[in-house]
Write a structure and sequence with these properties.
By secondary structure, the protein is mostly beta strands. The chain is 0% helix and 54% strand. The strands form 2 sheets. Strands 2, 4, 5, 6, 9, 10 and 11 form a 7-stranded mixed β-sheet that branches. Strand 9 and strand 10 form a beta hairpin.
Length: 116
């Protein structure tokens, strides 16, 4: 199993960013995918969960207005888009395959830096 994420991004405040997570080694639609982030010096923060099989999403309340999860099942790639970026969105963003409620395989993370 591998989850390969896109490279680091630098954005201005107010912009949007889209991070990808390409899955391989398992049936993409058979497992939920979690998105988690970690700001500098902070712990892990769960953003939400995506079901690649039907496209359904469960988002943490603080992200409901600014975050969208999508996927391209033809390429087994999931995406997270974050809009209206603020400096406090600077973090490493991870995708993780959800197995029985926990992330069993993780991507290596994508650093998103929000700075003017």
């Amino acid at each position: 199993v591998q989850l390969v994420q896109s490279g680091a991004e630098l954005r201005n405040p107010g912009a949007s960013v889209k991070v990808s997570c390409k899955a391989s080694g398992y049936t993409f639609t058979s497992f939920y995918l979690d998105w988690v982030r970690q700001a500098p010096g902070q712990g892990l923060e769960w953003m939400g969960r995506f079901d690649p099989e039907d496209g359904s999403t469960k988002l943490a309340q603080k992200f409901q207005d600014r975050v969208t999860f999508t996927a391209d099942t033809s390429t087994s790639t999931a995406y997270v888009e974050l809009r209206g970026l603020r400096s406090e969105d600077t973090a490493v963003y991870y995708c993780a395959r959800n197995y029985r409620g926990r992330g069993d395989y993780w991507g290596k993370g994508t650093l998103v830096t929000v700075s003017s």
